[in-house]
Design goal:
CATH class: Mainly Alpha
Number of domains: 1
Order of helices and strands: HEHHEHHHEHHHHHHHEHHEEEEHHHHEEH
Bound molecules: alpha-D-glucopyranose
Number of helices: 20
Strand order of the largest sheet: 3-4-7-8
Length: 441
């Protein structure tokens, strides 16, 4: 069993090192800005150390909220050296963008309600009321945006328009969709002319992390091209959906929506507020619609193409996230637990791999194509606990902590031998380790 005092000290030091005053950068150099779900996970850990600092982390996310309610996945730093990144997105092209900060034009998994509640749990009743009152209007607006903009047919499932929105950037189902659509001529030209080594020179991520642990250059350029298409439409969802390159109902994202909805309900209830009736209806629909993503023959959940309504039957850990949603039946949860237990699927020595170990898409060190990520383990542990799988949750907690104690607070880990990979001194790894040390199922 790892020495939890040492691990706690190490994790605390990482958060201090990445602290930028009002928010925490995910990793110095590699990720210098404020990211949406990163700050949520970070606040969950910070709440154990300094609850007021944790509150600040979440309040600072609201600086980036768009007038239509969207919370962007990145709020950019304002120093001159980050001009190129701000300019790549040009959020100012949209009338909905905030005036005083530059952001992206897309979102990320909605973990804010969860984080607000976790932080609230550390406050006394009066402080909690003040805290919830401060966050509730922005949260409500965000959830309304999710449905108004991203569920245009009122089906209950939120659609995503870029792989970066799902948080698992190069996860196989999304990469599969990317290859199904024609690559832009300039991306194909880079490929054909073998210019990727030149392009590699301008990538920030491969400066601090070995290229074999990241996206391929072609994938990175295809994602950039997909982003530029969104910019050309000034991030206007209707215009984007007119000729969408990607529109996917992601099973992991929608599972997090379901949990976020129930946490939002909890906050509203505490404040004696009524959730608007149309939002309530949508929330219920999501729980039902998630079941449409279940494939009864393969016994897994899959992402779905919004346009064709076909399931994208490419394996990834997203199938497990309904455990975190908490809305699926005990029988379905039991099927997912079986996948987790199986050593050839998700029960690797250091679970949970981001892609099942028996899939041809599995690469143990390649970013979201195999490695084990602490944030995803945290979500699954939480879900297992709520479904009554206390022993499974405890076992996964322990291997997760052991993996980080052995390798350090890295971004991700090889699920076969626990070797650390990706960026070092990574904030959400540190923060969630702090939370897991305290966790009891
Ligand atoms: C990568 C991850 C994303 C994360 C970001 C900052 O892009 O895929 O989920 O939010 O890094 O850590």
């Amino acid at each position: 069993m790892p020495n939890y005092d040492d691990l706690l000290a190490q994790a605390t030091a990482v958060l201090e090192q990445n602290d930028r005053g009002d928010y925490t950068q995910p990793a110095a150099g590699l990720y210098p800005h404020q990211w949406l779900w990163d700050s949520c996970f970070t606040a969950i850990g910070l709440a154990h150390l300094d609850v007021h600092r944790a509150q600040k982390e979440l309040v600072s996310l609201l600086r980036g909220q768009w007038h239509n309610g969207m919370l962007p996945n990145i709020i950019f730093r304002s120093e001159p050296q980050y001009w190129a990144e701000r300019n790549q997105w040009r959020s100012w092209l949209s009338p909905h963008a905030p005036e005083h900060v530059a952001t992206t034009g897309i979102t990320q998994p909605p973990l804010l309600a969860e984080a607000v509640v976790r932080v609230g749990d550390k406050l006394d009743k009066t402080e909690k009321r003040i805290w919830y009152r401060q966050m509730y209007p922005a949260l409500l607006k965000y959830h309304q945006w999710l449905y108004n903009e991203r569920d245009p047919h009122g089906e209950g499932l939120i659609l995503l328009i870029h792989p970066w929105e799902c948080g698992m950037d190069n996860t196989p189902p999304w990469i599969y969709q990317l290859h199904q659509h024609q690559l832009a001529w300039w991306v194909s030209a880079v490929d054909k002319l073998r210019l990727s080594s030149i392009v590699n020179k301008v990538r920030r991520d491969t400066k601090s992390v070995p290229a074999g642990e990241r996206f391929s250059t072609i994938e990175a350029l295809a994602l950039l091209d997909a982003q530029l298409r969104l910019r050309r439409k000034a991030y206007d969802t209707d215009r984007i959906l007119d000729h969408a390159l990607f529109s996917i109902e992601d099973v992991a994202f929608n599972s997090m929506v379901i949990r976020a909805n129930s946490q939002l309900n909890h906050i509203a209830h505490f404040l004696h507020q009524e959730i608007p009736a149309d939002l309530k209806v949508s929330m219920k629909k999501t729980e039902k619609a998630l079941e449409d993503l279940w494939d009864p023959h393969l016994s897994r959940y899959y992402c779905r193409d919004f346009i064709t309504h076909n399931l994208i039957k490419v394996p990834s850990m997203a199938t497990l996230l309904p455990l975190y949603a908490g809305s699926v039946s005990a029988e379905r949860a039991a099927e997912l637990v079986k996948l987790l237990e199986n050593p050839t699927i998700f029960g690797t020595p250091y679970p949970v791999p981001s892609v099942p170990a028996d899939a041809k898409e599995f690469h143990p060190k390649l970013y979201w194509q195999g490695p084990s990520w602490v944030n995803m383990n945290w979500l699954i542990i939480d879900g297992l606990g709520r479904y009554g799988y206390a022993d499974h949750a405890a076992a996964l907690r322990e291997t997760t902590l052991e993996m980080v104690a052995k390798g350090g607070c890295h971004e991700y880990f090889d699920p076969l031998d626990g070797t650390p990979a990706g960026g070092r001194d990574f904030s959400w790894t540190a923060a969630l380790v702090i939370d897991l040390i305290q966790y009891k199922a």
